[in-house]
Amino acid sequence: MRDAVANITLPTVISPLEVVRHQFEAWRKRRPCQGRIPEALWQAAVGLCKEHSICEVSRALRLNYSGLKDRVLRTRDIGLGFGDRPDHGFVKLDLAAPMTLSECLVEMEAPSGAKMRMSFRGTRRDFDPVELSQVFWRQGR
To answer: Quick one: 23 and 60 in the same domain?
Structure first.
């Protein structure tokens, strides 16, 4: 009875990564020289990145890491196949656009009667207003 059980072989389960890897190998064998990868194969590779890292998929399928990463990011940006919920773990801030321009006016008068007025608009300054104030206060001493 033991020998009968030992001879039974169970069917092996092939992972989706292996299936797509075999598809890429078959395409590479029959493709024209340096032909472009069909869009269906790219989509299969991007789909694998839901369960595997981009690095793991690019190595297994012998794909350019950056090319696969760009496709995965584009797919995530337009929301195809990566769930209906947006990722709230990251907040993107656009710091290039100015918020609101601020304005500041500083007027100083020394006991000697000297007056200084500084007006600032926006946030960018090529000088230090504190240093200018210190110079102003020191001039009368």
So the answer is: yes
